[in-house]
Specification:
This is MerR family transcriptional regulator. The chain is mainly alpha-helical. It contains five helices and three strands. The relative contact order is 0.09.
């Protein structure tokens, strides 16, 4: 875990921007008493935000959309890992049936009902 001062240095970020990004929900530090703590993932996210805003010229709305999509992709990857682990743990006949259903459904168009 990184304390705020170290996080600011490593992220090459000023305190006002950090507060703004936390307020916008772009960064979610862990609170440990009066001192915020940041993870390496928070640091990578801050660097991505900085790059989008400075190098790519993405505005705040665009950053929010990109981060939301990134979070969705991360959540879907996590769900797929859990599904894969559950499939691996299933008995062989169940696993074969599910895989066959997945293959058969690959040619179908996705449903728009939801």
């Amino acid at each position: 875990m990184l304390e705020s001062r170290e996080f600011l240095l490593r992220a090459r970020l000023d305190a006002a921007s950090l507060e703004s990004w936390i307020e916008a929900g772009w960064l979610l530090p862990q609170e440990a008493g009066p001192e915020r703590k940041f993870t390496e993932l928070d640091l990578a996210r801050a660097r991505l935000i900085h790059e989008m805003r400075e190098a790519m010229g993405v505005n705040d709305e665009g950053v929010a959309i990109a981060l939301d999509l990134l979070d969705q992709v991360h959540g879907l990857r996590h769900a797929l890992r859990r599904l894969s682990a559950a499939l691996q743990a299933a008995p062989e006949p169940v696993r074969r049936d599910l895989l066959a259903r997945l293959r058969d459904g690959a040619d179908e168009e996705p449903s728009t009902a939801g």
